[in-house]
Amino acid sequence: MASKKTSPARHGEVSNSSQIAVVMGSDSDMEVMQSCIDTLKDFGIEPIVRIISAHRTPEIAAEFAQNAAENGIKVIIAAAGMAAHLAGALAARTTLPVVGVPLIAAGGLEGVDALLSTVQMPPGVPVATMAIGKAGAKNAAIFTVQILALTDKELEKKLSDFKKSQKQKVINSARHTAGKKDSTLK
Ligand code: RP5
If you average pLDDT over every residue of the chain, what do you get? Predict the structure, then answer.
């Protein structure tokens, strides 16, 4: 899948009328989060993209979360590394679903630090936490599409097509690896 480079909009700027926000703690997170953005685009969703840090720009984080629903956002994807409090800090200030992506940061603990910081939310403030790194970034997009697809038939169809094509890819590569038609894979 070709990577379509995305430039984050400046804080407070409304880039479009998208229902999905992809927020990350640092521009150093963009390389991994690009796959989240690209996956959303594959489903026809142009997300709002922001660099906001729970620790370095806490006021902006609070303001963003407080105004997100009013700004038409339906789901927030929040990605961060190290002591990753971004998803939780946003979830504390909005009733919107927040999907967390724990990232591997240089000098960190291979993402386990971010995973625990993101997933271990206290009761009453959930964050739907994905896998560490690239897999989580992509799954955050798909999970978000699944939420929107509950009330969007077109998206539901795209998801169903995606599942079929994913299955076919695995079957094709299994056949290729086996070097012959595998009768167990239909
Ligand atoms: C987190 O700290 C960011 O999400 C990033 O993953 C990590 C390191 O940030 P930088 O020092 O690269 O800006 O807040």
Answer: 90
Q: Is 25 in the pocket of ligand 1 (CB under 6 A)?
A: yes
pTM of the model as a whole: 0.88
CB atoms under 10 Å from CB of 64, counted, come to 25
Q: Which of 22, 77, 82 for a ligand 1 pocket mutation test, highest count of atoms within 8 Å of Cβ?
A: 82
Other Cβ atoms closer than 10 A to 7: 9
Q: What are phi and psi for residue 21, nearest 5 degrees?
A: -115, 135
Distance from Cα 165 to the centre of ligand 1, integer Å? 35
Residue nearest to atom 3 of ligand 1 (CA): 25
Strand partners, 110: none
145: helix, coil or strand?
helix
Digit-coded pLDDT (tens) for 50-108: 999 999 999 999 999 999 999 999 999 999 999 999 999 999 999 999 999 999 999 87
Q: Shortest CA distance to 75 belongs to which of 103, 95, 101? A: 95
Q: Is the minimum distance from the CB of 28 to ligand 1 under 6 angstroms?
A: yes
